Amino acid sequence: MCKTTIRERVWRGDAVVSKMKELNFHDSHDQISVKEMYRLAHVMMQHHTPAWLSPLKSFGLTFEDLQKGMYCLHCFGYTLQKEKWHTYWICSECGNLEREPYLRGLHDYGMLHKRIITNHEAREFLEVADRFYVRELLLSASVNRIGKSKHMRYKLRMPQT
Ligand SMILES: [Zn+2]
Predict the structure, then answer these.
(1) Per the count of CB atoms within 10 A, which of 36, 44, 47, 72 is most buried?
(2) How close is the Cα of 99 to the center of ligand 1, in Å?
(3) Is this prediction's pTM over 0.90?
């Protein structure tokens, strides 16, 4: 049976460096050698689990299970249609007007699936056929672009960034 407490044995990620320094400045016979540090780092890397857990996986869902298209923020129907001047989207059910419903869709895509998206993937997910229009949406909703022309991919801007 171990006499140490959980707090002594389990360190939060942000406390590892200070704990390591603390151990090194303890008694000289308790110091960790460079070789041991590398071994410890290797073990930590092997057992590391990313903090991000897929919300879809945790509910037993896949990307294909998601409803595609943009929903109305007022009635939650997938009934938004672009008005003729392309400034607003209008809900055919409740008449709600929205300027950027595609941002919600792209944020959902980034949070639930992956943060890098192509024009083709965005058109399929948002259910918007016009690739030139989707290109404009992606330019406004991304933090940077990867690749050129037909192979361009967009790194989506997330709500907190
Ligand atoms: Zn609506």
Answers:
(1) 72
(2) 13
(3) no
Q: How far is the CA of 161 from the centre of ligand 1 (A)?
A: 28
Residue-wise pLDDT for 94-136, tens only, equals 999 999 999 999 999 999 999 999 999 999 999 999 999 999 9
Backbone angles phi, psi at 154, to 5 degrees: -120, 130
DSSP letter at 30 equals G
Q: How far is the CA of 70 from the centre of ligand 1 (A)?
A: 11
3-state secondary structure of 92: coil
Domain residue spans of the chain: 6-46, 55-156
Listed residues: CB within 5 A of ion ligand 1: 72, 74-75, 91, 93-94, 96
